Automatic annotation (TrEMBL), chain A:
Keyword Nucleotide-binding: yes
SMART domains recorded: AAA
GO biological process, one term: phosphate ion transmembrane transport
GO molecular function: ATP binding; ATP hydrolysis activity; phosphate transmembrane transporter activity
Keywords noted in UniProt: ATP-binding, Nucleotide-binding, Phosphate transport, Transport
UniProt entry tagged with the keyword ATP-binding: yes
UniProt cross-references to CDD domains, sorted A to Z: ABC_PstB_phosphate_transporter (cd03260)
Any Pfam family hit: ABC_tran
Designated name of the protein: Phosphate transport system ATP-binding protein
Superkingdom of origin organism: Bacteria
GO cellular component, one term: membrane
Gene3D superfamilies: P-loop containing nucleotide triphosphate hydrolases
TrEMBL record, chain B:
Family: Belongs to the binding-protein-dependent transport system permease family. CysTW subfamily.
Bilayer topology: Multi-pass membrane protein
One Gene Ontology cellular component annotation held by this UniProt entry: plasma membrane
Protein name stated in the entry: Phosphate transport system permease protein
Stored CDD domains: TM_PBP2
Spans through the membrane: 6-23, 44-65, 124-146, 166-188, 227-248, 269-290, 310-337, 358-379, 426-450
UniProt keyword terms in alphabetical order: Cell inner membrane, Cell membrane, Membrane, Phosphate transport, Transmembrane, Transmembrane helix, Transport
Gene source species: Sphingomonas leidyi
PROSITE patterns: ABC_TM1
Free-text function comment from the UniProt entry: Part of the binding-protein-dependent transport system for phosphate; probably responsible for the translocation of the substrate across the membrane.
Automatic annotation (TrEMBL), chain C:
Keyword RNA-binding: no
Annotated family: Belongs to the binding-protein-dependent transport system permease family. CysTW subfamily.
Species, as recorded: Sphingomonas leidyi
ABC transmembrane type-1 domain mapped to chain residues: 205-421
Name of the protein in question: Phosphate transport system permease protein PstA
SUPFAM superfamilies linked to this entry: MetI-like
Amino acid sequence: MTDATPLSTATATGHKMSARGVNVFYGDKQAIRDVSIDVDMDHVTAFIGPSGCGKSTFLRTLNRMNDTIASARVTGDIMLDGEDIYSSAMDVVQLRARVGMVFQKPNPFPKSIYENVAYGPRIHGLAASKVALDGIVEGSLRRAGLWDEVKDRLSDSGTALSGGQQQRLCIARAIAVDPEVILMDEPCSALDPIATAKIEELIHELRGRYAIVIVTHNMQQAARVSQKTAFFHLGQLVEYGDTDNIFTAPKQERTKDYITGRYG
Amino acid sequence: MNVFALLFVVVGLGLIGWLTARARAVRFDRGGQKRLHSLPSQHGWYVAMWTVLPALLFVAAWTALSPALIRDQVLKAPAAAQLSDFAFERDTILGEARDVALGRADSTFDPTADALVAPMREAIAFYGWTGTAIAILLAFAGGAFAFSRISPAFRARTRVERGLMLILLVASLIAILTTIGIFLSLFWESIRFFAMVPPQDFLFSTHWSPQLIDPNNPGKSLGAVPLFWGTFFIGAVIAMLVAIPFGLMSAIYLTQYAAPRVRAWMKPMLEILAGVPTVVYGYFAALTVAPAVRDLAVHLGMPFASAESALAAGLVMGVMIIPFVSSLADDSIAAVPTAMRDGSLAMGATNSETISRVLLPAALPGVVAGVLLAVSRAIGETMIVVMAASGAANITLNPFESATTVTKQIVDLLTGESEFDSPKTLAAFALGLTLFVITLLLNIVALRVVKKYREAYE
Amino acid sequence: MSKRAAPAPAPERTPTDWKGAAMQKRIRRRYAAERRFKLFGMLAVILSAAFLAFLIATMVANGARGFTRSEVALDLDFPKMGLAVDRTHLSTPGADLALSGAGLQDKVEIAAESGGDHSLAANSAWITVRDAIKADPSILGGKRTIWVPASTALEMGARGEGTAAAQADASRLRSAGKLRTGFNWGFFTASNSNDPVAVGIWGALKGSLLTMLVTFLIAFPVGVLAAIYLEEYAPKNRWTDLIEVSINNLAAVPSIIFGLLGLAVFLGTWQIGGHSFGPLLPRSAAVVGGLTLALMIMPVIVIASRNAIKGVPPSIRDAALGIGASRIQVVFHHVLPLAMPGILTGTIIGMARALGETAPLLLIGMRAFIVTAPQGFTDPATVLPVQIFLWSDEVSRGFVEKTSAAIIVLLVFLLAMNGLAIYLRNKFETRW
């Protein structure tokens, strides 16, 4: 299936995250079939594909958010720095701190802006003092490009912000726990074009520090923000490779059909 | 004639009206000249409505009015001349005569009433048959009028629907009428009470002993503060100390942790707990819990502990409220969008951290409203305190001592044999008014909070 | 693939050491807190369930015996007893009076005491004898053995409890074939009595039945019609808001307030146009109780019915309107039948609440001592919960088990009603 990038265990260990032969079942229904893929630091990896193709489902296996669905079952190996994240030795709480997630719809907690960002560091005990916590909050908000807009109203409710600001707040919240990978599940689908542009800009800036995986239904967006692109269809990974190649010279017929808009 | 029999006859006439009108309308149709605006059965309904409704309205009015007419007629009888002018005494005697005349009692207490039995019986029969005759006449007249109007062109359906709409409107107005009725009846009796007892005595004085009322200064022994305190202490403190943690934690466990199978068994269990009648809780409190609590108190070094402690009543009341708190907390937690929960879990929070730091704060308005409703229900709860709490009005902070509540006193005041106009009886209505106003306020605040909270997530 | 490089360190933060000892310790603490939290939740549920189980077990343990009763065979020699009674009276309604006037009660007691210095038969044994005489006056002509309820002491003895003397009596009588224990049918056919051995719940049960009938006949139509109006036709204005607010508040008004309402409105003294006249309705009657409870549960029915009506999808209304049905026809032909399961569920739950209600009925005087079951809606009556309350106040030991037995009967009724409601809810849950 995945013929774009040659895969071998030797190279797999060098990747930030790598998945091998992953299947996901919801009850009797198989949502993901035999997906193998690598995610690297300093890269933005985009998952594209028609809706219902399983790209979001696969994304949620990367930080075990599928655990919250009782009927979901995952087989295959997913490694984070060479460690199997589904092994009993891996602690799901720590995993999710290291692999952060930003959701489709902005979901700030109904707390103040400050508390939203401070939530992660507090539960994980990342700040030794109030001053350190203030530093983390400020740093995260700055990196999320939100600091200048909210620095005078940190005690306002996070839900009072505009949609785009809420989404950047959620990104700041994810950054605050100092993750290694950030998963973004269609982060701009609920936003207007200006807010979308800001988020894309932010993704560019964040790329240097994290491995970023973004699910998008918008091919232009994938082309703009990502270095690697994976095309999913009917629960399978059809093609994975450098974004430029996927969009200019897809190897698979199905990829070409999708990109040229024949279906999807 | 018996009112029920009369109703039966009227409804029967309505049915006959329906059948004849429909039969006639069917024959219109057979003429085939014109298309009917309405179906035959709708013509039937039109006639039935005109037959039944005026007669029913008359019966209702007559039932309310005829006692006064009967009474006037009886008072005109020669035997009534020797009746006392004092209204209360006169009414009592008339009441006795009526009971005998109706066969509710075998004999009268007062010999003067004996002489009135015959005139009373006569008057009852006279007005009874008059009413019956008028009702049946009205039914016939209404039916005939309606029957004369139906014709192929007659818009029976529109008329019937208009009538039906009116009935619907009246049905929905009954809720308002009940509210007004409650308020007025409580308010009216309370006004009479406060004419005898100064409001400041009732509301702020701390001595309550309705058994020993000084007729010259009834306010001295009708200070309701100990009752208010007891109600608050049992219903809003002790009961809530049980109900809130248990209700909240079981809601959390059942919604967030329990396997579907466990939930499928445990939720009906809580519903059963909610469906147990209060008299059963009261019996259980008095039979089992109260003696245990007293033994505990004796163990703790309180040899004269009351067997009717505030604690026993409050504990059982708390258990009774658990399902109520649980179901309201369940609703409020379920109303928090799953995105919140996912957001927190995706940050690496554990389940309990997610619940206590994100879900509960987000659901807090709903939970608070639920607690307010639970308090309102606890302070209005009657049977548990009637059966397990004491009648002694104490202001105490010791849960092993006895305390009494507003509801218990209402029952005690109204179930003894005493006349209707005494300050003692009327005090029950003043207590009722206080209880009504407080629970109403709690409900209004709670419903408003819930509404605001729902809007926040919609 | 040339872009791969070492992760750029965040300038102002050192990467978190997730494997470090401090972090591991913290994680362990967090998981311990998690387990504790879950345990509290489980405990809350288990303790609630345990309370319910304990309550039911207590009632069953106390009440099971209320359903059995021991009877003792009483040898009566009627001619010797010297009952001065005119036999022609015995088939008339005056029979009861004639027999008690002839001193039947004392004479039966004397006969029952013949075995020892304490009575073996219950105080109410003479009533059994009386009924036997009424059924067949010819028995007065000779000797006859009649099974009568055993006294409380003997009853205890028959169970192996109570005093040693009573136990000895019981075993002596049993071996003589003069004591038998069986199902207490009388509990379901008799009414109230001063003697715990003779009490039954029939009077209260019938009172409950009559009261519930009145409640249903009023609350159901009015509640459903009000719900239809509010959900389908009411204009959105302040009046409608007022109606909604009153319904929501009425649903939360303490039940005892409805008792005060019933007392003041139905049983109070009215002043109209200078005339003052007494109660509209007789005190203690099922019709007053039924009306009062109807007002109480109407909001429950309205709210449930509105939800059920709201649950019918608008597409069904559109379809009916589209083929030319009037708005009334749409509701009565299409919406109402589809909403009926939900409406019935709500109604059953409301009726169950009314059936278990006590406080308001105490205030309107439905606590009468009912020896014969009420014959109509205006007869003095009591209801099952009030009967339980009245028995619970009795000091006699025998009443404890009768109270618990009555509670079991009440709980069975309520469970059946709630079970039916849950069944309806599950069976008819959303067919679209």
